[in-house]
Specification:
Number of helices: 14
Largest sheet: 10 strands, antiparallel
EC number: 1.11.1.6
Number of strands: 12
Helix content: 25-40%
Cofactor: heme
CATH superfamily of one domain: Catalase core domain
CATH class of one domain: Mainly Beta
GO molecular function: catalase activity; heme binding; metal ion binding
Function: Decomposes hydrogen peroxide into water and oxygen; serves to protect cells from the toxic effects of hydrogen peroxide.
Shape: globular
Structural class: alpha+beta
Family: Belongs to the catalase family.
Length: 534
């Protein structure tokens, strides 16, 4: 073999394989087992680049956890439009392109979640569930951010931080406390309808595939003439709906605290793709004095007999994430992310969420979170925004003058887009005030919901409420009973009777609805097995 042949063979031997480990600089890592040290016992040297890069990234591999909706699971899929809203072409109500053609498919990513608890909390806890859908439309992204339940605890966004503080663990003990929960709720009577749902079996969905979804807020649809209507969104699972009792949830939690994430992942892996139908309720954009509630009040349901559910499409989830952190954890949603033909209503919760959600993502993931593939629209992007943490590209148009990062300009900068549909220009008039809405009707729908429950659901609701309220201050009990009596005579009577016969012993510091949670500390000591030191 000649010298040249030998060198050629050596260079082939030294080529990296496709599965060779490298660092972030692309350097091959030849020893991933040992730091560089003075002798094999150490000490280590400061110039351990591979170690420093590896450990410093590890130190940062968790972005700040979501304050709410931390525990989540997600999947990819598509939305298929019907082209109609009920029996009419959808263009009567909206010009949004994704709805116009029958059979038109739009890629989606969905993140399901629980609300109050941390990233690895059990998926059996009593809590609303998040249901957030990112549509990658031809006009850019649309985020439909909602919950499994169709209403919410409050109707004004200024109360949101207080609500979450009350439902989160005690800032001293770091333990969830039902007395704090009911202290807030009994002094915020608009919460009672949601409390009725959350303390019933509807507060613990069996899994993510078999639960409803809702946009919760009131939005608007706008047609080509610029005419707007109020709209509510509802996701109905084709798999059916299943909920759990407290006892059933505790039995599942004892065996698997990831059961809902596992259920979703395995269903998609075996080709049992979950489906939901999207239905909307439509209402003219005015105050509707004939109703005993304000249609912008998120604590209320719109009666289906007056505002029928109109099917507009279906969603199928058919692909699991390839990497949980990259896709599910970094997925970032915002209620203000709307496309042409969709618009905001005056809903005060929606107005507050629209600032808060996107602001949270900029803090949590970074100023350039929309450049991440999971969040980026699947279309061209051209902005004059640049800089900020983790920017890896500039959103320029193909022929944009790179020196011009402002608008207007005649020197080759970006130009305003053309407005195709007539702009929606609702009339707004009134004094600037800090007041609650007029038609509050805080308990009527809670009574209607209670009467719609099956008997086992009523029994479970009363049992769960009694279990937690019995450990609360008497003043809190009295106010909650008064709300129940106002909602429905039977509801109030059974709650009062249950509390009169319930044991007052034990602590309110335990997961919501968990009847024997306060005994767990003693049980752990009594049943723990002695061991000698080692």
């Amino acid at each position: 073999m000649t010298k040249d042949q030998s060198n050629h063979e050596n260079s082939k031997t030294n080529e990296e394989r496709e599965d060779s480990l490298t660092n972030r600089q692309g350097h091959p890592v030849t020893n991933n087992q040992n730091m560089r040290t003075v002798g094999n016992r150490g000490p280590a040297t400061l110039e351990n680049y591979d170690f420093i890069e590896k450990i410093s990234h590890f130190d940062r591999e968790r972005v700040p956890e979501r304050v709410v909706h931390a525990r989540g699971a997600g999947a990819h899929g598509y939305f298929e439009a019907y082209g109609t809203a009920g029996n009419e072409h959808v263009s009567k109500y909206t010009r949004a392109k994704l709805f116009q053609e029958k059979g038109k498919r739009t890629p989606v990513f969905v993140r399901f979640s629980s609300v109050i608890h941390g990233g690895h909390s059990p998926e059996t806890l009593r809590d609303p569930r998040g249901f957030a859908v990112k549509f990658y439309t031809e006009d850019g992204n649309w985020d439909l951010v909602g919950n499994n339940l169709k209403i919410f605890f409050i109707r004004d966004a200024i109360k949101f931080p207080d609500m979450i503080h009350a439902f989160k663990p005690d800032p001293v003990t770091n333990i969830q406390d039902s007395e704090r929960f009911f202290d807030f709720c009994c002094n915020s009577p608009e919460t009672f309808h949601m409390v009725t749902f959350v303390y019933s079996p509807w507060g613990i969905p069996a899994n993510y595939r078999m639960m409803q979804g809702s946009g919760v807020n009131t939005y608007k649809w706008v047609n080509s003439d610029g005419e707007g209507v109020l709209v509510k969104y509802h996701w109905e699972p084709k798999q059916g709906i299943k909920n759990l009792t407290q006892k059933e949830a505790e039995e599942i939690q004892a065996k698997n605290f990831n059961h809902a994430t596992q259920d979703l992942y395995e269903a998609i892996e075996r080709g049992d793709y979950p489906e939901w139908e999207l239905l909307v309720q439509v209402m003219s954009d005015n105050e509707h004095p004939e109703l005993d509630f304000d249609p912008l009040d998120d604590t209320k349901l719109w009666p289906e007999d007056q505002f029928p559910w109109l099917p507009v499409g279906k969603m199928v989830l058919d692909r699991n994430p390839e990497d949980y952190f990259t896709e599910v954890e970094q997925a970032a949603f915002g209620t203000g992310v709307l496309v042409d033909g969709l618009d905001f209503s005056d809903d005060k919760m929606l107005q507050g969420r629209t600032f808060s959600y996107s602001d949270t993502q900029r803090y949590r993931v970074g100023a350039n979170y929309l450049q991440l593939p999971i969040n980026a629209p699947k279309k061209r992007v051209a902005t004059n925004q640049s800089g900020g943490q983790m920017q890896y590209k500039v959103d320029r148009a193909p022929n944009q003058n790179p020196h011009i990062n402002y608008e207007p300009s005649i020197l080759g900068g970006l130009k305003e887009a053309k407005q195709y549909g007539k702009e929606h220009t609702p009339k707004v008039e009134g004094n600037l005030v800090r007041e609650s809405i007029d038609r509050q009707s805080n308990t009527k729908q809670a009574g209607e919901t209670y009467r719609r429950f099956e008997q086992w659901e009523k029994d479970e609701l009363i049992s769960n409420l009694v279990g937690d309220l019995s450990k609360c201050d008497q003043r809190i009990q009295d106010k909650m009973v008064a709300l129940a009596e106002e909602a429905d005579e039977e509801y109030g009577r059974l709650l009062r009777e249950g509390l009169a016969h319930a044991s007052k012993e034990g602590s309110s510091q335990k997961p919501l609805g968990n009847k024997n949670g306060n005994q767990a500390t003693k049980t752990a000591v009594d049943k723990g097995h002695d061991a000698d030191p080692y």
